[in-house]
Prior knowledge:
The protein has about 400 residues and is α+β, with helices and mostly antiparallel strands. It has a single domain, classed as Endonuclease/exonuclease/phosphatase (Deoxyribonuclease I, Chain A). The protein is about 30% helix and about 25% strand. The protein has eight helices and 17 strands. The strands form four sheets. The chain has a six-stranded mixed beta sheet, with helices on one face. Strand 11 (about 180-190) and strand 12 (about 195-200) form a beta hairpin. Helix 1 packs parallel to helix 5 (about 230-255), helix 2 (about 70-85) crosses helix 3 (about 100-110) and helix 5 runs parallel beside helix 6 (about 280-285). The longest helix has 29 residues, at about 230-255. The termini are far apart. The relative contact order is 0.17.
Amino acid sequence: MRYLGIFLALLLFNIMSSSCAIKGEQVSDTTDSASQPAQGPETFTVVSYNAWHGLDAGEFWVTSTQTPEQSAARLRFQVEQIAKADADVVLLQEVNPLPQRAQEYVAALKELGLDYTNVHQVDACGIRVSQERALIPGLNNGLAILAKKELQLKKIKGLKLSGDVGQCEDTSGMQLGELRYGLIGEITLPESSAKYLIVSLHLHSGFETGQGFLQTLAKFHEQGRFERYPWFKWEIDKVRLRRIGEVSTLMRELYRLNQDGAYAGMAIGGDFNFEPDFPEYEEARLLRIVDSYTLTNHDQEQFTADPVRNGLIRLGPEPTIPDLLNNELTEVSAETKEEILASYREEQKRPRRIDYIFINSFLPDYCFRQDLFGLETDANNLPASDHFGVINWYTRDATPCNR
C-alpha cells in the first residue's frame, strides 16, 4: 500500500502544479463563432492517423505480418483516402521504415497530382549503425507529418518524451527500451503568414484496460478473492503516470516555443493510448489543450480502436492474456481466475476512443466538424489500418456553425 500512497501523492502534485500553471488563463478556442476570419484559406483539413506498421514485435525481434506487395497496396489505399479528403496536414504514427515510407507517401500523392512535403522522427530503431546495417533490419518505425507544399512545413524538433536510455535518428540509433517522441512541426498559412505548431505523437503503450475491468477486479478484491489487486493496479497506474509525464513534457516544450507569441495556435494529433475517462485526459485538459471531438456534435461515439468494425484487429477465439495479468492470478482459485479472464476477454472486445486531435487556438474563428478517417475497406472487407483515424474539416463559411 506504500506504493499506492506514493502514486496518489505524485498524481495530486502533478494536477496541482498544472492547475497553478494555468490559473487566470483561458483556452483561446471558440466553439460557436460565426464570424468570418479576415484572412485565411476557405477550407482546411487536418488528419491524424495511426497508419499501422504491420509488424509483430517481440522483446528482441520484429517480423512483418505482411508481404511487400501487401504493404505497398495498403499504402496506396491510404494515399487514395488522403487525396479524397484533400487533407492539408496529415499527422501519421507507426510509419515504417523511415525515412523511405514517408517519402513513399509523398511520391504516391504526387502521382495523384498533389504536392506534399514531409518531416519525420524515428521512435523505434533497435541498434542501427547505418541505413544498411542494423541489429533488426526491418525496424525503423516512427512519426511523420505530411503537409501541402504551400504550407512551408518545417521540422522544429523530435522531442523525446520518455525513455531513459537511447536515441533514434534517421539512419542510426541505439534503443534498449521503449522510447516515445513527439514530432513538432511548423506550418505557415500563405493567405495570412500566420504560423501554427503541429505535432504528431504516439504515447506509451502498456497494459491497457478501462474502468469497467478495474472495477470488476476491485470487487473480487473486496470479496477476498484477489488479494494482489492493489499491486496489479499499481502497475496500471505506472503506465498512466508515464503518459501523464509525456503529455506534460510535450506541453512544456510547446509553450516554451510559443512564449513570445510567434505562433497563432497549435494542433496535436496522434495515438494517445488513453480514453476520455483516464487521468491522462484530465492532465491534457489542465494543460489547456482541448479534445476537438468535444467541440462538435456527434450522434454516437467515434471509436478509433474498434474490434467490432475493424477486421485488422484480430483477437481470435482466445485473446492473448498479458503476462502481467497472468502472473498476478497464480494465487487465486481456478474459479476466480476463469471469471477474471472471462471479464478480460470481454474487455478486449470493447471499442475505444484513443486517437485524438487536441487543439489550442487552432483556426478558432472557423466552423468545423470531426469524422472518423480510414473507414473505407478493400475487396477483403479490411480497412487500411488497425486504427481508424480522426479528420477535422474546417470551413471559413460565415453562416452559423452547425455542430
